[in-house]
Amino acid sequence: MCPCVMPNKSAESRCMVFYIGKLQKKSSEEKLFYQLAYKSLHKVRLGRKTSAGIPHEGAEEGLFKQYEGDDTDKQQTYIQWRAAMEMDILARLTAGHRTTIYIQPIGTIPASVLNFSLEINNECMPLLDILRCFTEIFFTPKQATVLPAVHISEAGWVIGERTSKLTGEPQLLVRDFYPYLFKRVPRDGVCIMGLSWLDLYPCDKLNFVLGESSCAHKAGVFSFGRFDSRVPQQPSEGVAVDGPMLWQLLKTLTHEVCHLLRLEHCPFFWCTMNASHTVREAMEQPLFLCPVCMRKVQKVCRFSLLERYTNMSTFLKQVNQQCQFVKFMESIEWLEKVMNFLMQTNNPR
After folding, report:
1. Which own/partner pairs from 326-330 qualify as long-range (CB within 8 Å, at least 24 positions apart)?
2. CA 63 to CA 43: how far, in whole Å?
3. What are the residue ranges spanned by the domains of the chain?
4. How much is the pTM?
5. How far, in Å, CA of 20 to CA of 28, rounded?
6. Which helix (H) or strand (E) is 252 found in, with range?
7. What is the pLDDT of residues 23-63, one digit of tens each?
8. Is the previous residue joined to 286 through a cis bond, with omega within 30 degrees of 0?
9. DSSP characters for 107-162?
10. Which end of the chain is more exposed for a tag (fewer CB within 10 A), N or C?
11. Class of domain 97-261
């Protein structure tokens, strides 16, 4: 038995299972990784805020910082998520023969954006393939496929539209896309994510949304967001992809796909599944899942934590070399910490 695991019949053990599930079949390093979450949450319950630390010599800060947002009363533990998955027939199918996440471009995207490319793994990847590649790493071993673009008027879609009072730019009503995207999910589709150049709004009362999804339709939509450089009325001119834009696209895409796997917003740690109310808030949040959320996604996808983190580190290093952004650098540094933790746990001195 791992020395950090408490007796199965204890109240502490039952509480740990509630947050992160049973760990008997996990490797020793993955057990300790997930127990970081429980140890930190347990200390918070006792009134001692902390970070989930790295238990090896020289560690000075934790891997996972406690979330301090306003919605910490809304919690979805692993057991609660598992119950939601088991009640949803479509979600259960996700773990079986549904193996592909589809990305559906919507409308006209500027040529300068589509032609933006980076060299990843000795391959010149345009923007949509960069999104596809990262999606495959994040949800490995699921596959990702970019579908041919669909144009709203040509497809006969009826989508709500308005002019933003804040920006003066056109916006599209995100929920109107769901029924149409649902019909375009192939038989092997885990879900489908529409990508719109134009801004999105969720309802009349709210100004905008970077992305939104519907589990009932296995569909979501995300947009390029509110960048000063874009020119919606002249989408073929004057737009350049930079680090912040790419960061936001990667974050919003993976966040919404996690929602389609029945993950709710995370109130436990700073995590890519935290709720956000502004673009700045969304940009500041990490690109990674906390242990509670990771446990859910790993259950669906069944990946090795160390292999997944290694592939993600390789990808982000190549991205940052060609499209530098401080958040990519911070992510690479964090990945080094978590990989060192997993490797040292697996190979103790």
Report:
1. 327/243, 327/244, 327/247, 327/283, 327/287, 328/243, 328/247
2. 16
3. 97-261
4. 0.88
5. 15
6. helix 243-260
7. 988 999 999 899 877 776 765 554 444 444 433 322 334 78
8. no
9. S---HHHHT-EEEETTEEEEHHHHHHHHHHHHTTT-EEEEPPPB-HHHHT----EE
10. C
11. alpha beta
CA pair distance 342, 345, nearest whole angstrom: 5
d(CA 344, CA 54): 10
DSSP state of 170: E
Nearest to 334 by CA among 274, 288, 292: 288
Long-range contact pairs involving 78-86 (C-beta distance under 8 Å, separation at least 24): 78/18, 78/19, 78/20, 78/21, 78/292, 78/295, 78/296, 78/299, 79/17, 79/18, 79/19, 79/21, 81/262, 81/263, 81/264, 81/296, 82/21, 82/296, 82/299, 84/262, 85/262, 85/300
Tell the burial category of 108 from Cβ atoms under 10 Å away from its Cβ (0-12, 13-18, 19+).
middle
Token readout for 113 is 């954006």
Q: What is d(CA 154, CA 181) in angstroms, rounded to the nearest whole number?
A: 15
CA-to-CA dists, residue 225 to 116, 222, 270, angstroms: 17, 8, 22
Q: Quick: pLDDT tens for 310-344.
A: 999 999 999 999 999 999 999 999 999 999 999 98
How far apart CA 125 and CA 258 sit, in angstroms, is 24
Question: Could you give the angle at the alpha carbon of 202 between the alpha carbons of 99 and 84, nearest 5°?
Answer: 45
- Joined together, the tokens standing for residue 44 give 């918070």
E-strand stretches of the chain: 100-106, 117-120, 123-126, 143-146, 161-163, 170-173, 189-196, 199-201, 211-214, 219-223
- Scored b (16 or more CB within 10 A) or e, 314-329 reads ebbebbbeebebebbe
pLDDT at 11: 61
